[in-house]
Amino acid sequence: MPADAPLSRGVWWPAAKRGFDLALALPATVVLLPLIAVLSLWVRLDSPGPVFFRQERVGRFGASFRVWKLRTMSVEQVAGAALVTSSADARITRCGRILRRHKLDELPQLFNVIAGQMSLVGPRPEVAKYVAHYPEDVRAIVLSVRPGLTDRAALEFRDEERLLAQAGNPEQAYVSEILPRKLALYRRYVEDWSLMGDVKLVLETLGALAFPR
Predict the structure, then answer these.
(1) Is the dihedral of CA 89, 93, 98, 99 positive or negative?
(2) Any bridge partners for residue 121, and if so which?
(3) Beta carbons of 125 and 67 less than 8 angstroms apart
């Protein structure tokens, strides 16, 4: 399937998805700005370092962009460390554990959505190191859409960090066991995309955030 395969659904497809993103992301950002401000202050007071964590990720058609998150790790221990994180990771700060459990560290990615680098729903953006493990045909499909804040894989692997904590080598477990299952879900999302499907995933995500495991 070519990289622009989803466009075969019609010229309305990208416009409808982008309109959906902006219709939800803009008011959500306004409403959540006070919460983001309070959480930012908490991050600042909890450990030394910047409030935000920015990292290069691979976006639509392979273009790189910087994803925004609230920092959840100790600055001194991040450099040169593994790119995957388990729940037992000593780099995670005290407030970071709570932010990560409730996915609150992901809230600044609403800015990525507004900027057009991400979508509300879509395959989660990966670092280039792990995108290199995508089979070529799957890579073309997955990278044909903007990466998202949430998707079916994000919901099914809500306990990913706990799963990795049980592995002897978390990075190897991620690449060999978790990533292939995620890619299958990413591919299914792109091939079966519908606007109502995005609505359903947004609602399921809100429910999962309201009642974390």
Answers:
(1) negative
(2) 150
(3) yes
187 membership: H or E segment, kind and range: helix 179-191
Phi, psi of 160 (to 5 degrees): -55, -45
Of 185, 49, 60, which Cα lies nearest the Cα of 126?
Answer: 60
This prediction has a pTM of: 0.90
The rounded Cα 132 to chain-centroid distance in angstroms is 18
Q: Which residues contact 62 (CB under 8 A, 6 or more apart)?
A: 131, 143
Residue with tokens 């991620």: 174
Q: How many other CB atoms are there within 10 angstroms of residue 148's CB atom?
A: 26
pLDDT in tens, 17-61: 999 999 999 999 999 999 999 999 999 999 999 999 999 999 999
Neighbours of 12 (CB within 10 A): 10
What are the CA-CA distances from residue 126 to residues 30, 36, 117, 123, 129 (Å)?
27, 23, 13, 9, 8
